[in-house]
Amino acid sequence: MDTFLDRILDTKSEEIQHLYQQDDLLTKPVQHSTKPSLYESFKRDDQLSIIAEIKRASPSKGDINIGIEPPEQAQLYEDAGASAISVLTDKPYFKGSIDDLVDVQHNVNVPVLCKDFILDPIQLKRAKQAGASVVLLIAAALSPERLNDLYEQATALGLEVLLEVHNEAELDIALSIGATIIGINNRDLMTFNVDLSVTESLIDRIQDPDKVIISESGFRTKDDAERVAKAGADGILVGESFMKTDDVEGALSQLRVPTTRRGSS
Ligand SMILES: O=P(O)(O)OC[C@@H](O)[C@@H](O)c1c[nH]c2ccccc12
User: Fold this and answer.
1) ipTM surpasses 0.95
2) Domain 4-20+35-253 belongs to what architecture?
3) Selection from 164, 163, 117, 154 nearest residue 132 by Cα
4) CA 103: distance to chain centroid?
């Protein structure tokens, strides 16, 4: 049986073909982002840094919050203390768009992450053009060679990369590529099962104290945040619980718990 990841990867190939037909994407020079570095700001922070996500819907939850205006929601996030904003730009499964990202990045000063299933360099170019400063690359969606290739091309475009892993084999690939910002997704993209112990068990394999580690998915309570902070995460990525609350400020500030240093230095 096809998993969700198989299905989405098929859909993306069609989208990529369309992108190659957009002349302005191929010819326009890429713009220089004025956003600060996610890596630097997360490293400096002694509280858990938060990437707050614009997520209207998802394949596992259906509609989450269809009514929001992304630039306003992003502003609420920034005012509440988010250190970066993630925008889901996938349309078929998450009801987002690249225009959401364009609107959001105009409205905030923190780094903006383009959250999509990136398989081809043209998607990097589109993200850059739209004003993203960070892109997501998902180890489960790419061969190690392709992942390495896209990582280098993203870096060459001046984009930072959040490299997402979910198991030991993927983490080892991320480390061999030399990824500096590693996302540990607590959600299995095949089964949608969410378990914070994924972060706890993988983080011990990352000895280098210079890496920025971001635990992704499933955060609601202060206890959740404390659990991964204790394990050594520098930041967390939160979507659904911020999209559903009437009190973004309260929901976000309770998750800004102190971090603990990993490694010896
Ligand atoms: O809504 P949550 O459980 O707070 O999760 C946010 C984020 O981690 C999740 O949207 C995500 C993590 N990795 C992804 C890859 C593709 C799409 C979505 C994701």
Assistant:
1) yes
2) Alpha-Beta Barrel (3.20)
3) 154
4) 18
Ligand 1 atom 7 nearest Cα = 217
* Each residue's pLDDT expressed in tens, for the chain with a length of 265 residues: 688 888 888 899 999 999 999 888 878 877 778 899 999 999 999 999 999 999 999 999 999 999 999 999 999 999 999 999 999 999 999 999 999 999 999 999 999 999 999 999 999 999 999 999 999 999 999 999 999 999 999 999 999 999 999 999 999 999 999 999 999 999 998 889 999 999 999 999 998 999 999 999 999 999 999 999 999 999 999 999 999 999 999 999 999 999 997 754 4
Name beta bridge partners: 115.
88
Residue ranges around ligand 1 (CB below 6 Å) = 53, 55, 115, 138, 164, 185, 216-219, 237-241
Distance 27 CA to ligand 1 centre (A): 32
CA 263 to centroid of ligand 1, rounded, Å: 27
Residue ranges of domains in the chain: 4-20+35-253
| Positions marked catalytic | 53, 55, 115, 164, 185, 216-217
CA dist., res. 225 & res. 4, Å (int): 28
Model's pTM, two decimal places?
Answer: 0.96
**186 Cα nearest atom in ligand 1:** 8
Q: How far is the CA of 106 from the centre of ligand 1 (A)?
A: 23
Q: What CA–CA distance (Å, rounded) separates 89 from 100?
A: 7
The residues with which 162 forms a beta bridge, in sequence order, are 136
